[in-house]
Amino acid sequence: MSEDFNDLSKRFDRIENKIDKLSDAMVSLARTEEKIMAMETDRANTVERLNRHSEKIDELNDLVKENSRITANIVKITWIIVGTVVAGATKMLFFM
After folding, report:
1. Distance CA 58, CA 55 (A)
2. d(Cα 51, Cα 29) in Å, to the nearest integer?
3. Residue pLDDT, tens place only, 66-85
4. Is 96 helix (H, G, I), strand (E, B) or coil?
5. What are phi and psi of 95, to 5 degrees?
């Protein structure tokens, strides 16, 4: 009878060890799941920020295009004025 209790006790010890290992594995799994959820939240925030930056870049691109057009017009007007001044100065020097 004593041997049966010893065998039963050993068996319960092994079962208890296995349950402890399963418990540790469950805790580890829960921690990993929390980390994954935190990473997913960070990823979603990063995607949102990237989308906002993309919108800002598009707005800046539109402003640059408009500024380029205005600058081109200013350059044309400047050359017209310079050409007029040079033509006027040439007329005054040679035709007066």
Report:
1. 5
2. 33
3. 999 999 999 999 999 999 99
4. coil
5. -115, 10
Q: d(Cα 57, Cα 52) in Å, to the nearest integer?
A: 9
Which residues of the chain carry a pLDDT beneath 70?
A: 1, 96
Using a 10 angstrom Cβ sphere, with 0-12 exposed, 13-18 middle and 19 or more buried, the burial of residue 7 is exposed
pTM here?
A: 0.57
Q: Specify the pLDDT at position 4.
A: 78
Mean pLDDT of the chain: 94
Return the structure tokens found at 91.
């007329």
9-18 long-range Cβ contacts below 8 angstroms, 24+ apart: none
Element containing residue 55 per DSSP (H, E) = helix 2-94
Question: Nearest to residue 85, comparing CAs of 70, 93, 96, 72?
Answer: 93
**Encoding tokens for residue 11?**
């068996």
